[in-house]
Every structure is written in C-alpha cells, then in structure tokens.
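During the second half of the funding period, the structural biology subgroup turned its attention to how the target accommodates small molecules. The most pressing case was adenosine-5'-triphosphate, which had performed well in the primary screen but for which no bound structure existed. We therefore specified the complex as follows and requested a full 3D prediction, including the ligand pose.
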Amino acid sequence: MSDMTDTGGPVLAADGTPLKRSLARALRRQKMRALMLIAPLLLFILISFILPVADMLYRSVQNGIVTETLPRSVVALADWDANSGDLPSEAVFAAMAADLKDAAAAKTHTKVGTRLNYENPGISSLFRKTGRKAKKFDVENGGPWKEALIDINKGWGDPDNWRTIQTYSPPVTAGYFLNAVDMRVGPDGAESRPESEQIYMNLLKRTLWMSLTITVCCILLAYPVAWILANLPMRQANMLMILVLLPFWTSLLVRTSAWKILLQQQGVINDILVWIGLVDDSARLVIINNQFGTIVAMTHILLPFMILPMYSVMQTIPPTYLRAAKSLGATDWTAFWRVYFPQTIPGIGAGSILVFILAIGYYITPALVGGTKGTFISNQIAFHISSSLNWGLASALGAILLAVVLVLYWAYDKIVGIDNVKLG
Amino acid sequence: MAEAVSDDGFVVFDRVQKSYDGETLVVKDLNLSIAKGEFLTMLGPSGSGKTTCLMMLAGFETATHGDIRLGGQPINNIPPHKRGIGMVFQNYALFPHMTIAENLAFPLEVRKMGKSEREEKIKRALDMVEMGAFGGRRPSQLSGGQQQRIALARALVFEPELVLMDEPLGALDKQLREKMQFEITDLAHNLGITTVYVTHDQTEALTMSDNVAVFDDGRIQQLAPPDLLYEKPENSFVAQFIGENNTLEGIVTEITGDTCVVRLDDGEELDATPINVSKVGERTKVSIRPERVEYNKERLQEGAHTLKAEVLEFIYMGDIFRTRLRVAGNDEFIIKTRNAPDVERLQPGQQIEIGWLPQDCRALDA
Ligand SMILES: Nc1ncnc2c1ncn2[C@@H]1O[C@H](COP(=O)(O)OP(=O)(O)OP(=O)(O)O)[C@@H](O)[C@H]1O
Ligand SMILES: [Mg+2]
C-alpha cells in the first residue's frame, strides 16, 4: 500500500483511468439519485420559503415607483440643491407637469403619492388633488408651470415636498429600514424621528423582552414536568404525554379565547379572587389585554415545544448517574445540579430556541389578548401588510426580525454550541 | 441453612426481607456476615435478588424487614451519600459531561477536600489503574475496559472501606474480563478493602472470591469458599449451578455411616456420600463432576458399584477429551479425561463401565 503512494502520480483503476476520476463518476450517479429523491421538497422549499423571503428582502429596499412614474422630474431634479431653501427651477416644474399628466392618465399618480406619504405625511393629497386637474394640462403651450402648480396646490411651493421627491427618487432606498428603526432622512442625512413618532424600536425591544420572559417561564414550568415524564413508568408517562399534547389538538383560537374568559375582569380568576376575599370587587385585577395576559397565554401555548425536547433528552439519561453521584457522597441537590442538570442542557437549549423563535414571530395570541401594551412587532407587520398596505415597511420590519433571530442563533452557537442542541 | 449470623462481621444482613410490590418477596430471609477485608461474591441466576441486596446495602432501596449493619451500626436510616460506600455500576455510570479527572475529583469535591490533596489522590488513583495519561479525556473517548478501570478508580479514590460492584465486567470480552478479574482482586487485597461483588458468571465468582454466596429464589443457597462450593455443594441447585455436573435420580436403599447406596430408576445401583438424605427410601439426586468419573477398571476401588454406559459422542478439545454417554437413561452424561498418552479415546457406540469414589458422588435433595 504505502509504496504505491510513494511512487507519486495518480493511482489508476483497473481500466487505466485515474482512480479519483472513476470514483467521482461512481459517486456522481449516487448523488444524482439522492438529489432526485429530495427534488420535490427542494422545489417546495424554494417556492414557498426561499423565494418569498428573497422577495420580502427585495421589497424592503425597492423604490422603483418614483422614477417610473415621474421619469422627467427625477432627471430634472437631480442638480437641484435641496438645502438652498429655494424652489426648483421652472424646468423642473414643467417636467413635473408633464409627468403628472401621464401619471393621471395611467392612474398611477395616487400610488406615488401613497409611497411618498410614508416618508412625508400629507404629500399624498398633493398628488391626489393635482392629479385630478393634470389630465387637462397642455404640456406644450401651458405655463409657466411654477405658478400654475402652486396655484392648484400650495404644497408645490414647499421645498420640503420637493426634497422628499428628490430623496426618494433612486430605485433603491434605505427609507423603509430607517423608518423601521425610527429614523428618517432629514436635511443632514439620517436622523431620529421625534419621540412621539418612535414606535418600532420600542416594539422590537418589547417583543424581545416578552419572548425572553415567555421562554424563561416555559423553562421553569416544563423542567419538572419533563422530569416527571421521564421518570414515570412507561404507561403512566404515555398518559401524561397525552395531556401535554392535548393543547395541540385544540384550535389555537379556542385556547386563546379560553384565556380571555379566564382572565378578563369579570372572568373566572377574578371571580374566585373576589369570592375568596383576596381582591375587592371594585378593584378587580387587570390581567388581560396587557403584557401579563400575553405572557400567560403564550407560555401556555408554547409549553409543549419546551417539554418535548426536554423530555426526549431526559429520557436518555439513565437513573444510574444520580445513584452513582450519591454513592460518591453527593447530596440529592449536588447530584442533581452537578450531574443531572448539565446533561439536560441540550434539551433546555433546543426547547428555548424553539420557543423563543416561535414567540418572537407570534401573531394571533398577542393580537387577541395583548391589548395595546401587549402586542408584538409581528402585529405591526400584519397591520402594514393588510391595513396600511405599506409592504415595504412590513418587509423591512420582517427583515430586521429575521436578522435578530439569526444574530441570536449565532450568539447561542458561540456560547452554548449548536451541536449541543438535542431534540431526542 | 439460615444459621445465626455472627455479630462481629463488618457488613451484616440480619433477617433481611425485601418486597417491591407488597405481594412477592424478592429477598426472603437473608442472613449474611462479611468480614473486614473479605472479597465476597454474590452469584446467582438472573432475577435472584443480587442487585436488590446490593442496592439495599448502598441505600437506594430500603429493606422491608430486618437490619443491615455496617461496622456494627444499623444503616437503615442513613442516606446513601453518608454511607461512604464505593460503588461500581454495571454500565460504569461515568459522568459523560466531565473529563476523567473531573469524574475522579467529584467524590473529593463533595467532601470539600483541598485542591492539592485532591490532585494528588486523583493521580494516585489513576496510576493505580494504569490510566495516568487519560485524565483529560471524556468517558466517551475511552474503550470499555478503560472506562471500567476509571469506574473502579472513581469508586476507590475517596478510600471507602467497602466497595460494591454490580457485574462490572459484564460488557467486556473474555480476554479483557480475565485480565480485569485479576486486577480487581489484586487491588482489593492490596488495599485491604471489603468487597461485595455481584456476577452471574460462575468462573468469575470462583476465581476471584474469598467466599461465594450462591443466590436463588431470594435466599442464599450456600455460602462457602470457591473450592468447597465446587467440590462439596450442599444441595442440588448449587451442584447444578456451579460448574459442569452430572445428575442421576434414584432412591436411597442403604445408609452406612458416611456412604450410602442409591438405586437408580432403571434398577442399577451406585455408591454415594449422603449429604441431604437422612433415611432409606428417600428420593435423591446424585451429583458427580465429569472429571471424577472413572472408566478404567484398574483405578476403581475394590467392590465399588459400576454402571453400564454407551458412548454417544467423543469431542476432542485439546487439553481434555469430553465424552457424552448414555447412563441409566440419561443421554447427557458427560465425562472429561485429561489428554495423556495412555488414555484411551472412546469411540461412539462403544459399551463401557463407569464408576467413581463414593466421596466424589453426593446424594443431594431431589
Ligand atoms: N424496581 C423494581 N420494582 C419491582 N420489581 C423489581 C425492581 N427491581 C427488581 N425487581 C424484581 O426483583 C427481582 C430481583 O431483581 P434483581 O435486580 O435483584 O435481580 P438480579 O439478581 O440482580 O438479576 P440479574 O442477574 O439479572 O441482574 C426480579 O424478579 C425483579 O423483577
Ligand atoms: Mg442485577
């Protein structure tokens, strides 16, 4: 063997081709077959997961609408200095008039108004109102357009509006992302929004904080349950397991509504507390439609995702370890803490990642029991997708959420090690 | 059998009973005294209650009835971690998340021992099992035999006076097992530790122990040193369980002093030593070791009874010949002869006569 490799040169197969190449050829066929087997799944994931995510990421920076709708104005505005305090030249106004006429004919003027309104509230009415009259513009012979446009709407005389148009004319923008982190493009570049307009960062912080609280609650509640499950005889463990899985068989809405019934001010828990005398009838506890309600309901809903990985990890730990520790002189607590607990960390890690990532993107439960104080960032995303139709901002928020999850995942890998995660 | 237990043993089981379910007794009336420094093996078939006894001694199970004393003190109410008993588990139970050195440090840390003292003891324990270079590894990076040694070192590192081992060699191959058997007994004797060793491998029990307690049905069937156990089994269970054994059934027809005559079911008669039989007419199982059967007439005593036998099979095993015979209707009668130049090799179908010295043939309970 060794002298064969010592001679140098490639090792040849029986038919004279280099061994490496014939091996590669043999393996290629195997790989192709394996690829065929997973092709349907790959295709499915591509269509239903990778493409939508890519599309979302694209939407969060895409801004083609301004140049497409107002091509001439964008070119004409290019050399205008927004910080001069003067209005743009007559040529720019003429270009805008021509663009608006075309846009009004194509009925796209309101769209560009809506887009710019995200950045400069109020600007949409400027486009809407001007657009109504723009169809009758006589582009060749009319003018001067500066006076004509300002005459239709005073907004055209405000350099700020022109600045917005200029700033958001490139086909790619950071505006949605700036908005998502409570910033905007001001005269001197990016700046923080006024205190009263800051929502998203606080919401993100709240989402992270509440998800963390929910994860910790799940760990504390799930650990003893998983321990009991892992140490009971098989039959009783299976019975209990059904109880753990029972929530999966009930609709999420039903479970969340049940919490509403339990926790509301005229609800079961308040009734009992009043009846016992712990709480005065006039001072019933507010335990729903706030953060507390969200945490309680979501801990309940996500608990199985914590119990299952913990249980499957604990099941693999033979009880002899505890016995060995005790025979070596450890008290019950030392034996648990130094011998049993470290071996369950992979289960805790797997459960925590699962619960935290599920919680951070949760939507239905906070929407139903969160009130105003207990909603998550996902509720804002949903709002922008379905109500305000600001998909760009929704995408930017979604992308930030994705980035946060990836960063946390990376941090977890650095601290605990991802191969330390066991689902069974 | 249940003779009174002497009170001066280091470990004493006094009328101990154990039931898990309240219906059946897994351990019935266990009386056992183990002297300091003794190597005692509990041997018995699966389910005979060996592990249960060990667990009661270690404190992981409580005796339903009776006393267990350690160094004269009853330990029924002492929790396991205060008993100071070293234990080697069947699967070793080395903590997988700790290195070998950390595993060994564990019993010392919980005893709040200083760092330098700890390190010295760990080093000594590792050297003792010849694993000095492996302190930094994880248990999963060791072979079975190496893990076994570490388990042993961990059970000994805190210098317990009593060590319990539950089938510690069960997972090892034969060669390694024999090596470890030797090493364990050597260590135990050198350190003067009292050892209770559980196995269901009888060779292991015979080669390692000072005393062997044969368990069956929740009782000690016989407690004796290995040679007595093999040569002088006190009942047919022990005779059957330890070593290879030939059994013939019959009725006692005559008892004279320390010999008796047994008439087998097919009418033939043989000489035996009465052990568990007391009167004429009783049914008995006679037990003869295969190597004590003689078919060379010249070597038999004058006037001894002989039996007719037909050779069924001759197996050449190198150092010995193993021949299967049909004797008094029993097709599984085995004899073993040393491979010596003057020994005749029997042929299948050959008719021979066999006999033995009466003291080698024991009439036991039926
Ligand atoms: N935790 C338990 N609960 C109920 N019954 C048990 C328990 N542990 C052991 N038993 C029963 O007690 C009897 C003796 O068991 P034990 O483990 O002591 O046997 P053993 O002699 O160690 O056998 P082996 O050689 O197979 O290890 C068996 O019949 C077993 O089924
Ligand atoms: Mg056992």
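Two results from this model are relevant to the next phase. Chain A touches chain B at residues 318, 320-321, 323-332, 334-335, 338-339, 342-343 (CB under 8 Å). Residues B 20, 26, 44, 46-52, 200 surround adenosine-5'-triphosphate (ligand 1) (CB under 6 Å).
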